[in-house]
């Protein structure tokens, strides 16, 4: 049996509230040649029970002790067999044509990394706005990274071989994705597609909304690394 073209990877920790919708949005994609790697990162709520409802052969569920997002995503990549990796979070909703459009965009433009614009939704799935900030254009993404994260993490698709070659995710609190992108975008073509392919849920329980000193310090460090890696391409 041939390996799937895309591996969708998702970590879930106590994510029972929105998990069913998130999974269903991937299973209902117009593009069908994918596997869905779901890592239950030591959940103590009803996550395991919800995962048991799904019998789709494309889903591969792994359980591990709770070690955080970085460990779970690196583990998921190790278990994956696709050429491309698509990220997904357990509280978001992918548009039905997300994988199809992103893969086509990556192949046409020979990209290593591709994000998209997103719509924001609330806890009741009401649309609350749009995120326009992902820059469109290879050089724009590289310059934008000097100041902010140029990609919305759960919207990205990337070449697995390139990210593994770069060393995968590292432990930069809450901005592990931002740091990883700075190791990619100055060596390989990377861009955002000018379409809204994900509904990004804004709610009080999100890790990324819990600001602390370590996160702010890491943000400064990553901006410095972006400039450094742009100059020296390492």
Question: Structural class, please?
Answer: alpha/beta
Architecture per CATH nomenclature, i.e. the level-2 architecture: Alpha-Beta Complex
Count of separate structural domains? 1
Number of helices: 8
C-alpha end-to-end distance: 37 Å
Number of strands: 9
Overall pLDDT level:
92
- Global morphology: globular
CATH class annotation? Alpha Beta
Question: Helix fraction?
Answer: 25-40%
Biggest pleated sheet: 9 strands, mixed
> Stretches where pLDDT falls below 50 for ≥5 residues?
none
Helix-strand sequence: EHEHEHEEHEEHEHHEH
The CATH fourth-level homologous superfamily: Spore Coat Polysaccharide Biosynthesis Protein SpsA, Chain A
CATH level-3 fold name: Spore Coat Polysaccharide Biosynthesis Protein SpsA, Chain A
Describe the structure.
- The protein has 234 residues and is an alpha/beta fold.
- The protein has a single domain (6-232), classed as Spore Coat Polysaccharide Biosynthesis Protein SpsA, Chain A (Alpha-Beta Complex).
- It has 8 helices and 9 strands.
- Strands 1, 2, 3, 4, 5, 6, 7, 8 and 9 form a 9-stranded mixed sheet that branches.
- α2 links the parallel β2 (34-41) and β3 (59-64).
- It is globular and about 50 Å long.
């Amino acid at each position: 049996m041939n390996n799937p073209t895309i591996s969708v990877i998702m970590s879930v920790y106590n994510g029972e509230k929105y998990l069913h919708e998130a999974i269903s949005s991937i299973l209902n994609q117009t593009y069908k040649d994918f596997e869905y790697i779901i890592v239950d990162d030591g959940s103590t709520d009803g996550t395991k029970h919800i995962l048991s409802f799904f019998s789709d052969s494309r889903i591969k569920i792994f359980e591990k002790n709770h070690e955080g997002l970085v460990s779970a995503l690196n583990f998921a990549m190790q278990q994956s067999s696709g050429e491309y990796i698509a990220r997904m979070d357990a509280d978001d909703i992918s548009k039905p044509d997300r994988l199809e459009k992103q893969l086509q965009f990556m192949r046409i433009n020979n990209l290593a990394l591709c994000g998209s614009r997103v719509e924001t939704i609330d806890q009741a799935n009401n649309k609350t706005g749009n995120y326009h900030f992902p820059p469109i254009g290879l050089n724009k993404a590289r310059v934008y990274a000097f100041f902010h994260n140029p990609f919305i993490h759960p919207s990205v698709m990337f070449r697995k071989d390139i990210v593994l070659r770069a060393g995968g995710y590292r432990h930069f609190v809450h901005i592990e994705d931002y740091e990883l992108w700075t190791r990619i975008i100055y060596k390989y073509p990377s861009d955002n597609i000018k379409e809204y392919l994900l509904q990004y849920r804004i709610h009080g329980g999100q890790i990324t909304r819990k600001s602390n000193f370590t996160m702010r310090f890491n943000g400064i460090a990553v901006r410095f690394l972006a400039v450094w890696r742009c100059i020296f391409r390492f």
